[in-house]
Amino acid sequence: MSISLPADEPPRAGIAARLGGGAGPFVLGLPALVFLLLLFVGPVLRLLVLSVEGGDLAAYEKAVTDGLYLTVFWETFRIAAIVTAASIVLGYPVAYWLTTVSRTTAAIGFACILVPLMTSVLVRTYAWMVILGRNGIINRALRDWGLIDAPLPLLHNLPSVVIGMTHVLLPMFILPVYSVMVRVDRELLRAADGLGASGGQIFARVYFPLTWPGVLAGGTLVFIVALGFYITPALLGGGRIIMIANVIENQVQTLLDWRFASALSMVLLLATLAIQAASSRVQAPRG
Amino acid sequence: MAEAPGRRRWLGRALAGYAAFVLALLLAPLLIVVPISFSSARYLQFPPPGWSLRWYARYFADPQWIESTLVSLRVATGTTALALVLGTALAYSIVRGRYRGRRMVERLSTGPMIVPHIVIAIAIYGIFARLRLTGTEAGLILAHTVLAIPFVVSVMSAALRTVDPALEQAAMSLGVGRIGAIVRVTLPLIRPGIVSASILAFLSSFDEVVVALFLSGTTKTLPKQMFDNILVEIDPTIAAVSVLQIALVVVALAVVARFGARTVPR
Predict the structure, then answer these.
(1) By Cβ atoms counted within 10 A, which residue in A142, A183, A284, B221 is the most buried?
(2) pLDDT tens digits for A82-125?
């Protein structure tokens, strides 16, 4: 802040100048801050209060001891883990490939990633229903080719939910990994090559450790977003695959059990924040 | 080179093939909806037995679809305006501010992106039900703005970091005040960021389902209308609506590519 106002300030006009003058940038952030406190922090804290209404932790006890809900939590984590693993396997090589091609090819590649990313989850889930449904494209094709007599049950099972969710979340993995990969200094790889390392060694001991922060950031994002998924399991799971968000919705809309819904929400939120915090503390593995 | 160039070329081709396969998987479901939306068949059939515009005609003729589309357009416009003003000011506060607790403010600004949407949805629903804001467009705008603020803050923070604060200080030393400096110097410099942030905010509201499931009531947004329809029957009208939405995304991304800030580092 080297430039200071001259002592004989020219007259400043209006309230705007006064607002900006003394209090500075903090004041500018206030409206949004108040907005978020009232409509985000406040309502979420209210859920916390609702969850312990009556002065005991009965709702939490039910959430973490009842076998039904334990199963749902376990299933939710399992699905999130599978989707994260699938995103890494599918996305990592694509992100790398994008750093090696010409600008034009990369632009086409990014279009293939950004258009699905920005398209509504509902549209993408509907598309998978069209593809995997009883009378869907795959079943039609298999029947027309005489390979099957009765339609295969491709929908309303774990694989269909995993496929739908991976399709939704894969772009969210590729982008952060790519942004780390483009900053990797190619000279380091050349140096390793010059020192006689094999391709596999260069990857395992130089390139992967350097790009690990991207994998961690992208993987964490995919995992925590997957934990809270509602639409895709609701539509592709067909009531057979139930994730924690579906249970919360049901508790609020159908059973009107706000206390239990709040407790489940707090457990989900806590898990999400814990994973986020753990991920930001993990150190890159040494090459 | 430690390895034979032949093997390296083979690896390169395998990588390109794999990447093309994954990208095709990402795009294919969206492309498949297109022929279905132009199908003449009453039910889902692929490939379509013939072509027609009947599903588009049905969409445009159905007051429910049109009304929900108008609700979504109004809600998304309101959300964009509110989130842009609040989010840009907050981004400015975070990037230029030197006050205590700035890190906390920054964390809070990204909070709605990390907290599961189902939790935000029922939290706001609980409050809005008491305030009689459910089933209103105002309620939807407020809730969608909570979700849109993180997008605006992250895009605008990145944009603001590219502007030299000395330019603002020079303007302020000429007596325009901080707001004057922001309006006349900073905002024109970050116009690409404003374009990107607006489009992100608009799409995030226009596509939003989970919050709308709780808050819509009788004021259905387009995604809520789609969700209800998909639960009842999968008729190709939804394919037509989907294609219109995908077209909107393509146009929006083209606008960002032409006038917006770089969302992907190069």
Answers:
(1) B221
(2) 999 999 999 999 999 999 999 999 999 999 999 999 999 999 99
Last residue of a domain, one of A14, A38, A55: A55
Asked if A170 and B33 come within 8 Å (Cβ–Cβ), the reply is no
Answer whether B230's CB lies under 8 Å from A123's CB.
no
**pTM (2 d.p.):** 0.89
Q: How far apart are CA A112 and CA A163, in angstroms?
A: 17
Q: Which domain holds residue A29?
A: 25-55
- The answer to whether residue A186 sits within a structural domain is yes
A7 touches chain B (CB under 8 A): no
Number of folded domains that form chain A: 2
Structure tokens at B166: 């000395």
Is residue A7 included in any domain, yes or no? no
- Are residue A100 and residue A210 in the same domain, yes or no? yes
CA B62: distance to chain centroid?
Answer: 26
Angstrom distances, CA of residue B217 to CA of B139, B192, B214: 11, 37, 7
**Domain at B54-259: CATH code:** 1.10.3720.10
Amino acid sitting at position A171: P
Contacts of B29 in chain A (CB under 8 A): 116, 124, 127-128, 131, 167
Q: Assess whether A71 and A194 both reside in one domain.
A: yes
Judged by CB atoms closer than 8 Å, whether chains meet at A113 and B26 is answered as: yes
Question: Apex CA A251: angle with CA A246 and CA A252, to 5°?
Answer: 100
**A36 and A108, same domain (yes or no):** no
Closest-CA distance of chain B to residue A171, Å: 8
Number of neighbouring beta carbons within 10 Å of residue B153: 31
User: Mean of the pLDDT values across residues A218-242?
Assistant: 94
pLDDT at A12: 46
Q: Which chain B residues are closer than 8 Å to A41 by Cβ?
A: 108, 111
Residue of A1, A4, A97, A169 to mutate, testing the B interface (most B Cβ within 10 Å of its Cβ): A97
Average pLDDT over residues B210-232: 92
Q: Are residues A185 and A233 in the same domain?
A: yes
Q: How far is B266 from chain A (nearest CA, A)?
A: 7
Express each pLDDT in B22-35 by its tens digit: 999 999 999 999 99
> Do A186 and A120 share a structural domain?
yes
